[in-house]
C-alpha cells in the first residue's frame, strides 16, 4: 500500500471532462489517474506514507491533489470530493506547505506604512499585477510555536480558498513571506465606516450580505470566531462580505502571543458570555452560538453607529457587565422600521446568556429583510433618513456622560414619532423558528475553483 503514492505521482491528470461513471468505463490514462487517486485518498497507509515524504515530493503531491479537486469527475461525487479535500487538508497541514498555485509570484508590493494594526495582524495597502490589494501579515512573536502556527495557517488558507462565496472576501493568494495573505482591496472600508459616511443607506439591507456569508460558513460547520464591524467589508456595489474568516482559529491563545496585551485582540465587546468566563485553564471553544451573539452586536453597531458599550472604556468593566447579563441599551430614536419589524427583539435574543437560546441566523435574516423593506417605505414617507435617525456616533469608548441629558431629550422628542409609527398597520409575515442553518441547501458553487 505504501507504493500508492509513487504510483499516483506517475499518473497523468485527466484531460477529459467526462463524469466519473463514464471515465471509469474507459481504458484511458484518465481512468488510471482517477483510480489511483481513489486508492490514495481512501487509504490510511497512503496518508502515513505521504506524511513521511521529503518537502519536494510532498509539494508535488499537494499540487496534484489540489488540481484533482477541480476535475469534473471528482466534483461530481460529494463523498469523493470531500475525501480528496480532507486528504489535502491533512498533508498540507502536516508539511506546512500550500499548493503552489496559491503563491503569488512575483509577490505584492507594499505601499507606505501599515494602514491598520490589531492584535492579530497588520494590514498594508499594496499592488499586485496592477490591482490594489490588501496585504495582511500575521503577528508572531514566540518562535517556539512556529510549527503549530504554520500548520494552522496552511489549513485555514485551504479552507478559505476552497469556500468561495459572494459574501466572503476572496483570497487572492499568499506571498512568499511568512504568514502573509493577500485579498482584494475594498475602497468602501468596513461596514461601520460605510454607514457613517452614507447616512441614507438602508442599514438592514447592507447587513443581509454578511448574514448570508455567515449562514454559508455555519452550513459547512465553519466558525468565523471574530465577528465585528471592522471585519465586515463593503464591496463596490454596496454589498457586505465577511473578512478575516479563520483568522482567530489560527491565532489561538495556545499558539502565540499578540502585540496587544490581551489574547483576544480587543474584541471583548463582541464576545459572548461563555467566551469571557475565566473558569478552567483552557480557552473556551468558539461555536455557532458565540458567532450568533457577536452578530447581534454587529447589528447593534450598524444600526446605532456605536460600538457595543461605547460609554465604557475599561475592558474589565465590559466583561463584568456581560457576565452579569447586562447588554447595550436599545435606543428609541433609531428608525421606526427597526422596532416595528421585530429586529431589535431578535437582536436581544441573540444576546441571550444561555447559548442555546440564541436564534438561528435564518430567523435573524428574515427580520433583517422585513426591516429593510420597512426602512425603504419609511424613507419614502419621511424623506431623508436624517429626518428621523438621530443617533450619536461615537468612534471610541468614552466614560464622558456630559451629553447624556441632551441625548435623553432627543429620545423624548422622537418618542412620539416612534409611537405614531408603531400604530401603523404593516402586514408582517410570521417568522417561523428555524432550528439550524443546516436546514438550508448549500450553494452549488461550493468547491468551485476560485482561481478560474
Automatic annotation (TrEMBL):
Keyword Kinase annotated: yes
Keyword Transferase included in the entry's annotation: yes
In this chain the Protein kinase domain maps to: 109-370
Can you name this protein?
Answer: Kinase-like domain-containing protein
InterPro entries noted in UniProt: Kinase-like_dom_sf (IPR011009), Prot_kinase_dom (IPR000719), Protein_kinase_ATP_BS (IPR017441), Ser-Thr/Tyr_kinase_cat_dom (IPR001245), Ser/Thr_kinase_AS (IPR008271), Ser/Thr_Kinases-Pseudokinases (IPR051681)
In the record, the note on similarity to other proteins reads: Belongs to the protein kinase superfamily.
Q: Which GO terms describe its molecular function?
A: ATP binding; protein serine/threonine kinase activity
Name one matching Pfam family: PK_Tyr_Ser-Thr
Sites where the protein binds ATP: 136
Q: Which PROSITE patterns match?
A: PROTEIN_KINASE_ATP, PROTEIN_KINASE_DOM, PROTEIN_KINASE_ST
SUPFAM superfamilies found in the cross-reference section:
Protein kinase-like (PK-like)
Which organism's genome codes for this protein? Thelephora terrestris
The segments labelled Disordered in the record are 387-412, 428-452
Amino acid at each position: 500500500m505504501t507504493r500508492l503514492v509513487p504510483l499516483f505521482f506517475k499518473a497523468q491528470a485527466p484531460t477529459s471532462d467526462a463524469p466519473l461513471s463514464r471515465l471509469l468505463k474507459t481504458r484511458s490514462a484518465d481512468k488510471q489517474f482517477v483510480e489511483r487517486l481513489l486508492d490514495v485518498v481512501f487509504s490510511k497507509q497512503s496518508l502515513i506514507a505521504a506524511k513521511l515524504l521529503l518537502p519536494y515530493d510532498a509539494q508535488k503531491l499537494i499540487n496534484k491533489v489540489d488540481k484533482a479537486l477541480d476535475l469534473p469527475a471528482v466534483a461530481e461525487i460529494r463523498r469523493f470530493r470531500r475525501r480528496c479535500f480532507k486528504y489535502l487538508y491533512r498533508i498540507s497541514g502536516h508539511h506546512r506547505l500550500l499548493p503552489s498555485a496559491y503563491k503569488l509570484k512575483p509577490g505584492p508590493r507594499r505601499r507606505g506604512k501599515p494602514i491598520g494594526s490589531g492584535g492579530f495582524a497588520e494590514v498594508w495597502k499594496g499592488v499586485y499585477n496592477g490591482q490594489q490589494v490588501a496585504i495582511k501579515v500575521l503577528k508572531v512573536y514566540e518562535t517556539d510555536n512556529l510549527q503549530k502556527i504554520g500548520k494552522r495557517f496552511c489549513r485555514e488558507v485551504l479552507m478559505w480558498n476552497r469556500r468561495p462565496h459572494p459574501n466572503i472576501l476572496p483570497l487572492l493568494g499568499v506571498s512568499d513571506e511568512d504568514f502573509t495573505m493577500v485579498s482584494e482591496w475594498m475602497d468602501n472600508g468596513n461596514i461601520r465606516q460605510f454607514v457613517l459616511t452614507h447616512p441614507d443607506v438602508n442599514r438592514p439591507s447592507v447587513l443581509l450580505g454578511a448574514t448570508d456569508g455567515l449562514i454559508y460558513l455555519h452550513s459547512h460547520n465553519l466558525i468565523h470566531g471574530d465577528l465585528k464591524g471592522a471585519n465586515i467589508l463593503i464591496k463596490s456595489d454596496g454589498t457586505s462580505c465577511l473578512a478575516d474568516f479563520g483568522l482567530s482559529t489560527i491565532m489561538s491563545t495556545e499558539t502565540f502571543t499578540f502585540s496587544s496585551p490581551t489574547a483576544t485582540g480587543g474584541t471583548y465587546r463582541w464576545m459572548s458570555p461563555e467566551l469571557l468566563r475565566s473558569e478552567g485553564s483552557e480557552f473556551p471553544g468558539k461555536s455557532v452560538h458565540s458567532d450568533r451573539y457577536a452578530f447581534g452586536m454587529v447589528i447593534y453597531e450598524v444600526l446605532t453607529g456605536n460600538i457595543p458599550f461605547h460609554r465604557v472604556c475599561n475592558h474589565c468593566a465590559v466583561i463584568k457587565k456581560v457576565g452579569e447579563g447586562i447588554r447595550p441599551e436599545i435606543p428609541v430614536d433609531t428608525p421606526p422600521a427597526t422596532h416595528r419589524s421585530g429586529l431589535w427583539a431578535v437582536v436581544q435574543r441573540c444576546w441571550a446568556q444561555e447559548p442555546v437560546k440564541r436564534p438561528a441566523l435564518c430567523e435573524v435574516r428574515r427580520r433583517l429583510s422585513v426591516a429593510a423593506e420597512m426602512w425603504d417605505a419609511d424613507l419614502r414617507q419621511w424623506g431623508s433618513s436624517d429626518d428621523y435617525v438621530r443617533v450619536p456616533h461615537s468612534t471610541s469608548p468614552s466614560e464622558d456622560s456630559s451629553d447624556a441629558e441632551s441625548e435623553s431629550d432627543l429620545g423624548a422628542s422622537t418618542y412620539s414619532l416612534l409611537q405614531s409609527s408603531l400604530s401603523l398597520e404593516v402586514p408582517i409575515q410570521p417568522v417561523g423558528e428555524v432550528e439550524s442553518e443546516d436546514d438550508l441547501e448549500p450553494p452549488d458553487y461550493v468547491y468551485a475553483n476560485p482561481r478560474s
